[in-house]
Design goal:
125 residues, alpha+beta, HIT family, subunit A, 5 helices, 5 strands, binds adenosine monophosphate
Length: 125
């Protein structure tokens, strides 16, 4: 069920629990600003979620409230994860779902990184 991304941050969301180590994940990468792990229901041979460590509901929330260093660190981490996973060698796709119309289900900002195969059209028609 897509979420209302204008709601306040919910500390009980599943990605907050992963960040706190309360729920296991298949970790790919972590640094000061970002954390990345394999999606539990992969839609491509490479399907990794990259999330900021900070408590941001969505891309909208993040770009309004995060500091420049945090934003730069997160964006660099996405690029690092693409290189680490081998996705960057032949191309990949980034996707962030935001709010109801975007189909966002987990209310902690996450960028999906898809790769490892041709990914087809950008959106279904
Ligand atoms: P979105 O629709 O953009 O909010 O995507 C949420 C993504 O989180 C989906 O692709 C789910 O498969 C993934 N997901 C949900 N719970 C977990 C979990 N515990 N570990 C890894 N991925 C998860």
């Amino acid at each position: 069920m897509p979420i209302d991304a204008s709601l306040p941050y919910d500390e009980a969301n599943i990605f907050a629990k992963i960040l706190r180590g309360e729920v296991p994940c298949n970790k790919v990468y972590e640094d000061e600003h970002a954390f990345a792990f394999h999606d539990i229901n992969p839609l491509a041979p490479i399907h990794v979620l990259v999330i900021p460590r900070g408590a941001y509901v969505s891309w909208d929330d993040f770009t309004l409230k995060a500091g420049d260093e945090e934003i730069a660190g997160f964006v660099r981490a996405v690029g690092e994860v693409a290189r680490m996973t081998g996705a960057s060698a032949q191309g990949y796709r980034l996707l962030a779902n935001i709010g109801k119309r975007g189909g966002q289900e987990v209310p902690h900002l996450h960028v999906h990184l898809f790769g490892g195969a041709p990914l087809g059209p950008m959106l279904s028609r």
